[in-house]
Q: What sequence folds into this?
C-alpha cells in the first residue's frame, strides 16, 4: 500500500491536510524571581476532577493547560491563548507562569507537593513516581501535541486500497506508520525546537553531568530527562504486539501502569492499550516538545503548523521504520540532545534530506505558500544552528545571566502582556466583550464550551450530560420565549406591569387640542410631560414637575406640542434619577448610574485637553472593543458646550462640571458608576418583582428614583419603572468607570449550572 | 350638590362620557321552526362552573352570552359579535338562536329542563323559581346592560364638592341617583326599544290576557312578564335603606334570595347587598331591554350608545327621583308596556322633553355628532311609533304570519351569516387569522382573554390564578428564549441537529475551483447539489441525484457555478417531497403537503377560466384575510405556462395538470393538503425528536421524504431535515385545501392550560 500514490492519484491533497488538533501545555507556577511556588493550585481554577482546560500535572505547582480539539490549528491556538489569559489574570498577584521547560529555583524535595487530586489512585501513582524517579525530574514541563487525521481521509484511503479487509486494521497501521517514522526522525524536531540546554544543579541527585557552562540541545529528551529505563522496549510493529509488550512490562512490575511508558508518541483512543484492539487508534499524541520561551504560549503557531506537516510526512514517505530503525531513532535523539545548541548537528545531512522531502510533499499536496516558507526556514537552520530555538536560547541565557533570570524576566513580561486589555480575550476579540467575559469565566470554571457561531455570539456549554446554549452573553433557556416579546412591546409591558401593581407612568394620546383641554381634569395636580408623539430635538415639550395647576398653562403646553405633531401625548412625569438594575433570578446583582459625558475642570486645562485626558482611561476606546467609549467633540458636544457658555478652548474653573452630552448613554461617552451598595434594598426587590412579572430570568430594569436612600413607597412620586430590557448589557457593570465591578457572567454560569456551586 | 354644574364648570365633559360597559344577552336555542329545543347545553361550550362568556340562564335551553367589560362600547360590541359567532358555529346543525325575547314553540312544562349547573344551590334556586312563577315565565330572554362611570370622574367630582366627607357615600349616592331617575324614566326606553308584543297562548297558565290579534309594547315588562309580586317594595333612598328593605323581604320569605328581586336596575359591586355598605356601589345593571330581533346580536351599537347617554342624563338632571317618583315610574312603565306598539304613547310629551334635555346635555358635554343624531332619531319616534322597534316588529310579524315564523326566519338568516367567513372572527378581523382561530377556541373553552395589543397579536389568558401570554397564536412561555434563537440561525440549527444525530444535509463552501476540485474525494458517490452561494433564478445549479460518479463532471459543475458567484456551495442533495410537520410537545399534530399553484384541465375551459373557477373556492382570497390565496396570472405564472407550451387561453386536456408556479408556497396560490394520517409514524416521531433537540414546545419541521409509507432509516437517502421553524403557521393545517382539518389552536390551549383537560 502506497499512501503517497493513493493521495496523488486521487487528488486527496486537501483532505490529507485536514485533521483535528489539540495541545496540552505544562508549566510551573513561579514567583517573580522565577523560583517554583510552594502554594496550592489556585481554588479560582475550579474543580480538577472535571476541569477540561486547567489541570495540574505531576506537582501542585505544575499547571497543565489543555485546549479542546479543533479542525483548524488556528482555532486550537486561539484556545491556547484564551486559556493562558484566563490563568495569567487569575493567578495570585505574586505568581507567574515559567516559560521554560526546565524548572528553576526548585524547592527542597520535601516542599514539592504532588498534585492534590480528588482521585486517590491519581495521587498514589504520583507518589510511586516520586519513589521511582525522584521529585525533581517530574517537575520538567513540555507540550503535548495531539493530532488526528481527517476520518473522511482514512475512510477514503481505505476504500481506495485492497490490501486490508478491516477498516480498523487499516487505520491502526496508518497511525502506526506515522508513529514509527516519527520515532525514527524525531531528532529533527528536537534539533529545531528543543529548548532545555541547562538546568540548575540541585535538579540532579548525584551532581550535574554538565560541565560548568556546558549547554546541550535538550536535557529533557536526554537520559537525564524524564525517560524510562532503557531496558523497557515496546514494539510498534502492530497494535497486538504493542499491547502484548506493554502489558508485559506492567505485569513484571517494571512499569507500575501503562501510562508510565513515556514514549514520545502515544497511541490514543482507549483508556487501556488492550481496548485499542477493538476501537482502533483514534489519534496520536506527540510528547517531544520543550516549551519555547520566546513564545508567550510556549509554542508558535508556525511551529505547530510545521509539526503537523512533519507528522503528515511520516505517512507520506514510502518506507516504514522497523523496530531496529526505532532504536536507531532513539539513539540519534539521545545523541543530538547532548550536542551543543550552537554546534552543527552530526546528522544535518539526514535532516536536510527529510525536510527536502517534506517540501516535495507540500508541493504535491498543494499546500499553502506560507507553510512552504516555514519549512524552508527550518531547512536553513541546519546550516545555521544559532537560528534554532536552542541556539537562540543559549545566547539569551548568557545575556540574562542565568536561565532562571531569563525565565523570570519573560514570565513577568508575558503576565503584563496578558493584562494589556484585561477586559477582553484577545483570541476571541471578534466577539462581543460580554461573550468574551462569559467565555473567560467558563474557561476558568471548567465548563466545556463550543463556539457554535462567532458572529452570532452563540455558545454551547456542557457539563457532563447537561447542555445549555447561550447567545449574546445572557440569552438562555432560562428565559421563556414570551418574556422578550412582552418587553419588546412597550404598550404590553406597561399593561403587564400596571396590572401587577407596579408604578408605571401612564400616558394619554390626543388628536385635537379641544379634546386634550376637555380632559384637563385628568391631569390636574399631576406631574406630567406634554409632548408631540414623535419628538424631534426636544421641540414642543413642556414639563410640569410640580403638577399642572392651571387649565390655561395646560392648554398652552398642548398647543405648543400640537405645533410639532398631529398627535400629542400627556404622560406622567417622573422626578428623579434613572438607575439600571441588573436582575438575575431572585436577585438584583448590580445597580448602575449612567452619567452623561462630562469632564471636570481643574482651572488649568481646556475642555479639549480635559477630554483627551479623560479619554486616556484604559476602559475607554471605540466602545465596541472597550467597555467605555471615548468622549467625542462633535457637533452635539459643541452645542452642549455652547449652552453652558463654553467652547472646546475654554478653561473651566477647578471642580466645574462641564456637560458634553444631555443623554446618559455609555455609547456616547457617558460614565458608568456602580451604585449597588448605595441603593436602598426596597428598590432592588421591586426590580426583582418587575422581572418576575415579565416572566424573565435575566432583565435590565430602568427605574426613576428621586432618593435612593429612602425606602420605596407605592406611588409614582417615590419611584417609577420606565423600561424593562431583555438581554441587558453586562460590560458596564463588570467594568464600570467608577465603583465596584460586578462579575455578572459568573452569575449567568451559576444560573445555568446550579450543580456546580 | 349639582353634578351638572360641577361637570360644566370644570369642563369634565369628556371624562363624564368615559366608563366601562358590559352586556349579558339571554336567548333560547331553537329548532329550525323556532320552537325551543329540549336538548342539553352543548358540551362543546365547556364548563359552566367557570365559563366567563357562555352560560345558561334559567333553562338548559337558554343561552346567556356575556361580554367582558370594556372602556369602549365598540369593543364590548365586538366581543358580543365574537361570542355569537363562536356559539352559532358550534351549535348542532339543527339548532339556532331565537332572536326574540318571548319564547315560541314552548315544550310542555315537564320537558323544560332547568339549567344543569354544577352547584346544587344554583339548581335548587331554579327549582324554587319554577314553583313560584312556573317554568314558562322563566323562559323569557332579555339583555342586561352593565355600566360603570369612569372611577376617575367619580374621584374628581368628589374632590370638587364639599357636601360629602366619605368618597364611598358620594359614589353610592351618585349611582343611586342614576338608579332612581332611571326607574322613574325607564318607560321611555321601553317605548323606544321594547320588542315583546305578543306570545303564544300556552305561555299563560290561565289563558292569554291578550285578545286575538292584540299587540302590546312589552309583555316582558308588563305584569305578565317576569316580575316580582307588586307587594315587594325596596327603597332606593340610600344604600342602608336598600339593604334593610331587601333583607326584610328575604327574612320574611317573600323572596327566597336577594337575587329574586327583579328590579330593572340592580346595584352591583357585592355578592350580598349588605357588602355594598362597605364596598360601595361599583356599577349598575340595567335589565329592562328586550331582544331586538332586527339585530343579529339582539341590540344595535347605536341603541347601546343611546342607553349610555340616557344613563348619563339620569345623573345630569338636577332632580333626584323620590320613592314616590319610583312608584310613578313603575306604574307608567306598566301602562306603556300595555299600549299598542303602533299607537302614540300616552306620555309622549314627557318622553320628548326628556330627550330634548338629553340633547342639551350632549351639547354641553361636547358629545360626538353621531350620538346627537342617534338621539334625534329616537326623539322623532314619539311622533311616529311605527319607527320604534316594537312598531316595526308588529308589522314584521304580520308579514311573516306569526312571531314564531318571523323568529325562525331571522334565526336561520343570522346563523347563515355567521358562517359566511367561517374561518374568521368578524369583529377581530384586523388580527391574524391564526389569532382569530385561537380567540375562537378560547371563547368556546371559556378562558378569560384580554387583547393586550391587537396589532401585535398579543393576548393575555387567564383561568383562575393561572396567567399565560400568547403572541401570534403560538408563541408562549412554553418555548424557551433560546430555541427561536437557535432556529433563527441556520448554521447553529444544523450543528445542533447534526450533533443530536438527525439527518441534516451538509454543505461545504469553496472560494476557488482548484480547491473544490481538490476536495472531490469528499463528494464521490454522494448525491449533491452544486450551486453559487447566492442563487439567482436557479442559474449555475447542477444536481447529481444519483451521486457524483466522475471527477470531470464534478469539476464542470463547479466551474459552471463559479460563473455566477465568487463562492460555491456543494450541498447534500435530498431526493423526495417536502412535508411540513407541525409538532406541539410530544406529538406531531399535523403533516401537510404544499403543492405549487395549479389547475387541472377538463378539456373544455381555458387556463384562465380554470383559474377563475379554482379561485372561487371559499378559502381563497387575498391570503391575509383568507386561509388560502387566489392564484394570480402574472408574469411568473405566464412564464411557467410558456414552459409547458401553454398560454392563459389554452384549453388543457381532461385531467392534464397545469403548473402555474414552481414554488409551493401557499402565499402564491399553492394548495395545502393534509397528509397526517398518510404519513408513516416514524417520521412523526423524528419531527418530535427534532423539536426536542431545538428545545422547542411548538415547531414546524420541514422534512424531505421520498416515500412517506416506508419507515424512516438513519440516512439521508431515507429522509433529511431542511428547516425547523418557530411560530409555525397554523391556518394551513386548520383550513387545508384538501384533507382533514387539524384544529391546532385547541392544542395550544391544552398545552397552556393542562388543568382544563
A:
Amino acid at each position: 500500500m502506497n499512501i503517497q500514490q493513493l493521495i496523488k492519484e486521487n487528488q486527496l491533497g486537501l483532505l490529507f491536510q485536514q485533521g483535528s488538533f489539540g495541545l496540552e501545555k505544562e508549566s510551573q507556577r513561579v514567583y517573580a524571581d522565577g523560583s517554583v511556588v510552594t502554594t496550592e493550585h489556585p481554588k479560582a481554577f475550579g474543580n480538577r476532577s472535571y476541569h477540561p482546560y486547567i489541570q495540574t500535572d505531576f506537582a501542585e505547582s505544575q499547571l497543565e493547560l489543555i485546549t479542546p480539539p479543533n479542525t483548524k490549528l488556528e482555532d486550537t491556538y486561539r484556545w491556547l491563548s484564551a486559556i493562558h489569559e484566563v490563568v495569567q489574570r487569575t493567578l495570585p498577584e505574586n505568581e507567574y507562569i515559567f516559560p521554560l521547560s526546565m524548572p528553576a529555583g526548585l524547592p527542597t524535595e520535601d516542599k514539592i507537593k504532588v498534585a492534590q487530586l480528588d482521585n486517590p489512585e491519581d495521587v498514589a501513582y504520583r507518589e510511586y513516581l516520586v519513589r521511582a524517579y525522584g521529585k525533581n525530574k517530574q517537575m520538567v514541563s513540555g507540550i503535548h501535541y495531539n493530532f488526528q487525521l481527517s476520518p473522511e481521509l482514512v475512510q477514503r484511503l481505505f476504500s481506495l486500497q485492497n490490501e486490508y479487509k478491516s477498516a480498523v486494521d487499516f487505520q491502526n497501521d496508518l497511525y502506526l506508520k506515522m508513529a514509527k517514522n516519527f520515532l525514527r526522525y524525531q531528532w529533527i524536531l528536537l534539533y529545531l525546537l528543543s529548548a532545555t540546554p541547562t538546568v540548575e544543579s540541585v535538579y540532579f541527585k548525584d551532581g550535574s553531568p554538565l560541565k560548568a557552562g556546558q549547554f546541550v540541545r535538550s536535557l529533557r529528551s536526554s537520559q537525564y530527562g524524564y525517560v524510562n529505563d532503557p531496558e523497557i522496549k515496546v514494539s510498534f510493529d502492530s497494535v497486538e504486539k504493542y499491547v502484548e509488550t506493554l502489558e508485559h512490562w506492567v505485569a513484571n512490575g517494571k512499569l507500575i501502569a501503562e501510562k508510565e511508558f513515556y514514549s514520545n508518541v502515544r497511541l490514543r483512543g482507549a483508556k487501556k492499550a488492550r481496548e485499542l484492539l477493538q476501537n482502533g487508534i483514534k489519534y496520536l499524541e506527540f510528547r517531544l516538545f520543550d516549551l519555547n520561551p520566546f513564545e508567550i504560549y510556549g509554542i508558535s503557531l508556525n511551529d505547530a503548523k510545521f509539526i503537523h506537516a512533519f507528522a503528515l510526512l511520516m505517512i507520506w514517505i514510502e518506507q516504514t521504520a522497523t523496530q531496529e530503525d526505532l532504536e536507531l531513532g532513539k539513539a540519534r535523539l539521545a545523541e543530538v540532545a547532548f550536542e551543543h545548541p550552537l554546534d552543527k548537528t552530526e546528522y544535518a545531512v539526514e535532516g536536510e534530506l527529510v525536510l527536502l522531502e517534506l517540501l516535495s510533499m507540500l508541493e504535491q499536496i498543494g499546500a499553502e505558500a506560507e507553510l512552504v516558507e516555514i519549512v524552508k526556514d527550518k531547512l536553513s537552520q541546519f546550516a545555521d544552528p544559532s537560528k534554532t530555538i536552542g541556539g537562540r536560547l543559549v545566547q539569551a541565557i548568557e545575556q540574562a545571566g542565568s536561565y532562571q533570570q531569563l525565565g523570570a524576566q519573560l514570565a513577568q513580561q508575558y503576565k503584563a502582556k496578558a493584562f494589556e486589555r484585561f477586559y477582553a480575550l484577545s483570541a476571541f476579540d471578534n466577539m462581543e466583550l460580554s461573550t468574551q467575559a462569559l467565555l473567560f469565566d467558563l474557561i476558568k470554571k471548567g465548563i466545556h464550551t463550543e463556539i457554535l457561531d462567532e458572529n452570532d455570539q452563540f455558545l454551547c456549554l456542557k457539563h457532563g450530560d447537561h447542555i445549555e446554549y447561550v447567545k449574546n452573553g445572557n440569552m438562555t433557556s432560562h428565559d421563556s420565549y414570551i418574556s422578550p416579546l412582552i418587553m419588546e412591546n412597550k404598550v404590553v409591558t406597561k399593561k403587564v406591569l400596571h396590572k401587577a401593581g407596579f408604578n408605571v407612568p401612564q400616558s394619554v394620546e390626543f388628536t385635537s387640542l379641544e379634546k386634550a383641554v376637555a380632559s384637563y381634569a385628568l391631569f390636574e395636580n399631576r406631574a406630567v410631560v406634554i409632548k408631540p408623539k414623535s419628538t424631534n430635538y426636544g421641540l414642543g415639550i413642556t414639563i410640569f414637575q410640580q403638577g399642572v395647576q392651571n387649565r390655561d398653562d395646560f392648554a398652552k403646553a398642548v398647543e405648543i406640542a400640537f405645533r410639532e405633531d398631529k398627535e400629542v401625548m400627556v404622560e406622567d412625569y417622573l422626578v428623579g434619577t434613572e438607575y439600571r438594575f441588573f436582575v438575575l433570578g431572585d436577585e438584583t446583582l448590580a445597580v448602575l448610574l449612567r452619567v452623561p459625558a462630562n469632564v471636570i475642570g481643574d482651572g488649568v486645562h481646556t475642555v479639549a485637553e480635559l477630554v483627551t485626558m479623560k479619554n486616556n482611561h484604559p476602559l475607554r476606546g471605540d466602545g465596541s472593543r472597550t467597555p467605555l467609549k471615548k468622549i467625542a467633540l462633535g457637533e452635539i458636544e459643541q452645542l452642549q458646550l455652547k449652552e453652558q457658555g463654553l467652547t472646546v478652548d475654554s478653561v473651566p474653573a477647578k471642580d466645574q462640571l462641564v456637560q458634553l452630552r444631555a443623554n446618559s448613554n455609555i455609547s456616547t461617552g457617558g460614565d458608568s458608576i456602580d451604585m449597588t451598595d448605595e441603593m436602598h434594598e426596597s428598590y432592588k426587590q421591586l426590580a426583582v418583582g418587575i422581572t418576575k412579572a415579565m416572566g424573565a430570568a435575566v432583565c435590565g430594569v430602568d427605574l426613576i428614583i428621586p432618593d435612593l436612600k429612602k425606602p420605596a413607597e407605592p406611588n409614582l412620586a417615590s419611584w417609577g419603572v420606565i423600561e424593562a430590557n431583555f438581554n441587558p448589557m453586562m460590560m458596564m457593570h463588570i467594568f464600570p468607570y467608577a465603583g465596584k465591578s460586578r462579575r455578572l457572567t459568573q452569575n449567568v454560569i451559576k444560573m445555568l449550572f446550579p450543580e456546580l456551586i
